[in-house]
Amino acid sequence: DPCRNFHCKRGKVCHVDKQGKPSCICQDPAACPSTKDYEHVCGTDNKTYDGTCQLFGTKCQLEGTKMGRQLHLDYMGSCKYIPHCTDYEVDQFPLRMRDWLKNILMQYYKRDLDTSGFLTEKQRSKVKKIYQNNKRLVAGNHAVELLLHDFEKNYHIYVYPVHWQFHQLDQHPVDRLLTHSELAPLRASLVPMEHCITRFFQECDGDQDKLIALKEWCHCFGIKE
Questions:
Q1: pLDDT tens, 147-171?
Q2: CB 3.0 to 4.6 Å from 223: which of 8, 24, 110, 218, for a disulfide?
């Protein structure tokens, strides 16, 4: 099969011509497999698509047009009303996000105690120090004042989770810069629950070059080094 090892980007599928030569053509959105409701996604055109196959197939067919350039995956789930993010809310956002990242690492560490594989050995040794810290704030729906107090008091606990998330996202390529597409997996999954995440990422990009450097990322989360 000429298509077996022939890679096409999202929204395109491999097609073999009469001479047996493979090439990439746009995925027909109508030919995408049917999806469950929870697999629906919302595009930046505020339209619900049956899944990422349909969204990226549509984007491919619009290639070269303004609409095609502007169409991206906005968030997971059907389109719904996303409230406006106020200045007060965007100021509080890093407090909750830092706490959330720390708690994710705690969950990974606990799972690794039973079945290893979530964290590397180096990551595990760093997370172990946070996990064993008896002053650590346990997971819960804490008041903003408590999160702020804990960050100021136990600052060192929050540094590694912020760095860890940056390096988890920085994959294509690994260049210490986060692009729109590298941020998308985190952003798209959080928008329905955290409506300030889009504005937060926009404001993280201090020099407005459409890339978030490690220094900009850390600054957004209040990490000094």
A1: 999 999 999 999 999 999 999 999 9
A2: 218
